[in-house]
Amino acid sequence: MVSPDGDFQKLVYARIQAMPEGTSISIGDSGTLSKSELLKHVAEGDEIGQKMIEIERAFFKALKDGSLYDYAE
Amino acid sequence: MLNSVLVTCPDYDRMTRYLSAWANLFISEAQKRRHVVYVLKEKDANREKFQGMVKKNAPNIIFINGHGAEDRVAGQDHKIIIDTRSANILKNAIVYAVSCKSARMLGAQAIKAGAKAYIGYIEDFILVSQPRKTAHPQDDTTAALFLNPSNHIMTSLVKGHSAKKAVAKGRAEFAKSITSALNSDVQSDDDKYIPYLMWDRQFLTAC
Predict the structure, then answer these.
(1) How far apart are the first and last CA of chain B?
(2) How far apart are CA A43 and CA A52, in angstroms?
(3) DSSP structure class, residue A29
(4) Residue in A20, A22, A31 nearest the CB of B13
(5) How far apart are CA B174 and CA B152, in angstroms?
(6) A44 CA: distance to closest CA in chain B (Å)
(7) Residue B93, phi-psi category: left (phi > 0), alpha (psi -120 to 50), beta (remainder)
(8) Residue A5's pLDDT band (boundaries 50, 70, 90)?
(9) Segment B103-160, tens digit of pLDDT
(10) Phi/psi at A42 (5° precision)
(11) pLDDT of B102-113, one tens digit each?
(12) Closest CA–CA distance from residue A62 to any residue of chain B (Å)
């Protein structure tokens, strides 16, 4: 497996690693991906990996600017 | 107010299995409340039956579950059930599509063709689930964080709420899921799924 490159990519990789073993994520036409498959995509930085990074980036942005708590009631 | 609702329930992979299982929860509830519900399950979730059912019964609400793209939504086995070229059959209906990206082009085309509203997602719809629950998707509490809000949109529509209000209700329910995940105990992993709940909430829209 290619090592994650870039700090944020590494962070996303680590966050997925922290998910329970059984977790699956369905992303559009890409199908349902296991944790190990997700890690591979993030490490390789392909289209699915980039999508995961985009999702996590939006989350951290919301955490940083406080808008995360606008989502919560 | 009693409605006539058409629901598509393809079931050929994990995503469609889950969408259909949760659509069935809505169907049971709607039937209890005496709404007329037409269901296209598995192989019946195809373009011909969908178009025939719409033309024959003119449902005022259409609930489409399936894989999608900007210009289409699929039924069983990934075969297109509705696309921008056939969007005219959605005329006069309120549509909710649990599908990736279809609110971008198909939604806009449906409105142009006379649909009263098209609720969907302008980005990929993300679903997190637990494989050990595959046999009983409705018991998957992780998937519930995502699919309960989705079902609330339909519940809101059959109550006669506007598409705008139904989307607001859906977003509020996603917010409840986020709050629940934020406040989950240390043994729960739900907090790890907040980015994906935020994503679905953000890209839920009404055309």
Answers:
(1) 23
(2) 11
(3) G
(4) A31
(5) 10
(6) 20
(7) beta
(8) low
(9) 999 999 999 999 999 999 999 999 999 878 778 999 999 999 999 999 999 999 999 9
(10) -65, -40
(11) 999 999 999 999
(12) 9
- Edge-to-edge strand list for the sheet holding B80-83: B68-69, B72-74, B80-83
CATH architecture type of domain B4-206: 3-Layer(aba) Sandwich (3.40)
Residues constituting chain B: 207
List CB contacts of B194: < 8 A, sequence separation 6 or more: A59, A68, B178, B181, B182
Residues from chain A that touch B128, judged by Cβ atoms under 8 A, are 23-26
Sign of CA dihedral B168, B169, B170, B175: positive
**B26 in helix, strand or coil?**
helix
Measured in degrees and rounded to the nearest 5, phi and psi for residue B158 equal: -70, -20
The CB density around residue B202, as the number of other CB atoms within 10 Å, is 17
CA dist B158 and B4 (Å) reads 9
Task: Check: CB of residue A58 under 8 Å from CB of residue B199.
Answer: yes
Chain B residues in contact with A72 by the CB 8 A cut-off are: 175, 178-179, 182
Can you give the residue ranges of every domain in chain B?
4-206
**A19, A27, A71 ranked by CB distance to B192: nearest:** A19
* Assembly ipTM: 0.91
Q: What are phi and psi of B40, to 5 degrees?
A: -110, 105
Domain boundaries, chain A: 7-71
Q: How many CB atoms lie within 10 A of CB B160?
A: 11
CA distance B15 to B150: 14
Contacting residues for B69 by C-beta, under 8 A, at least 6 apart: A29, B100, B101, B102
